[in-house]
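Box 4.2: Ligand-aware structure prediction
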Amino acid sequence: MFDAQPLESFRKSGEIVARLRKEVPSIAKPGVPAIKICEELEQKMRDHGGKPAFPVNVGINEVAAHYTSPPGDALTIPGGCLAKIDFGVQIDGYVTDTSVTVCFEPKFQPLVQASDEALANAIRAFRPGVKLSEIGRVIQSSIQKFGLRPISNLTGHKIERFTIHAGKSVPNVSGLNGAKIEEGEIYAIEPFVTLSNAAGVVVNGSSAYIYRFVKPKGPTFDESKKVLEYIQANFSTLPFASRWLGGAFERETVKKALIDLIKHKCVSSYPVLVEQTSSPVAQSEHTVLVERDNSTILTGP
Ligand code: MN
Ligand code: MN
């Protein structure tokens, strides 16, 4: 049923992620610069024989997703916050994806408990033949039992080689999704939880720090062409951060080139996603392999 080689790579990728998950609480603490968290985790992935599947995300409070440190970032983890550390490893394009929420404010602790429990219940229900809408219902009802609210417009996702969002989505609320889970598929499941009086949706923030390669032709400036060639050679399939271009180019060159490349639609960017009513958001995420009668967590015990 399963190809041995891809599965071996997914498992190895998941083992690295599982190991790093345990280190997150000692790395992500109040007073620590966000850029240090990103770079330390990304370096540890390489030390263990993997590569970052996408830039490490550090989401503080209402920032739900897609924040990674730009070069020279001054952001540090504040006291009394909730921070989502979302990261993934790839081995030959086989990606596993996870998120750990660290909480430094006792009154936000129930949000973390709710997202952890919703994830555990979703994984228990995750097996071949089950509709993805049923998983959304399980997640929503688990979160509502805590008197809290799921984020309705963020979802988990099927994973394929070099593709983090491979078509099928895992909703965090009940609704109409006729697609069914199939044996042999790999999914990231990721409930997001906010307060009951929040909007329960994310909107685009004003900045974007994560990018993806789109096409190789368009820019007219020589510097932009060089940066684009480098991006295509190194990050043609998975997302990247401008930090990752710093070894090859001056910071100003990267900044100007990215503006030019976005204008010419050679590169696109992912805006930071923020809860609409600025309410705190917790997130729990694991990647699972769907087996004959159940699912196995690849990114944890
Ligand atoms: Mn993730
Ligand atoms: Mn994910």
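In the box above, the bound molecule is manganese (II) ion. The longest helix spans residues 4-27.
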